[in-house]
């Protein structure tokens, strides 16, 4: 029997569809790896702000900033929530299936000694050096192996993420679509 979960947050996405753009190669370096960048995910469930780590994951942050500036993440559904084991909300796939990406891959970075405490933002992948657009937000301390490029830390809005996690999945399983309709309406990046 599934565990009882807290109330599912009422989340209302903006109208629109993902643009699903594709690129043949990783974008050229356009960020300053010594600068401080923040990304605000304006979601249907509230804003989540991320301090991006350009110094430790410059190519990953460069790709994330590029995709945000191309409005790639706009109207994309966060398609996967795990409420047991790894404790993540996975986002960044315009298809909403877990198989979509921007058409290029970015190599792994920042894996030596990587850990995934609550609030970590890291790249989802299909194996070594297969990072694309999908990323995950860690909802509580996770025991993931150091195979996923950590590239940021949530600096505001953790309460929104916790509410989504506490709402559980649509079918009550420990891994599946979140019960809350979590959609990234837009992403604003500044430095």
Topology readout:
Layout: E1 37-43, E2 46-52, H1 58-69, E3 76-77, E4 80-82, E5 88-91, E6 120-123, E7 135-138, E8 150-156, H2 158-167, E9 175-176, E10 183-190
Notes on the protein architecture:
With 191 residues, the protein is of the alpha+beta class. It is 12% helix and 25% strand. The chain is built from two helices and ten strands. Strands 3-10-1-2-8-6-7-5-4-9 form a ten-stranded antiparallel sheet. The longest helix has 12 residues, at 58-69.
Kindly list the characteristics that best describe this protein.
191 residues; alpha+beta; 10-stranded antiparallel beta sheet; 10 strands; globular
Summarize the structure.
Helix content is 12%, strand content 25%.
Low-confidence stretches: none
**Oligomeric state, counting identical vs distinct chains:** single chain
Question: Numbering strands along the chain, what is their spatial order in the largest sheet?
Answer: 3-10-1-2-8-6-7-5-4-9
Overall pLDDT score:
96
β content, as a range? 25-35%
Number of DSSP strand runs: 10
Helix content: 10-25%
Cα gyration radius (Å) = 15 Å
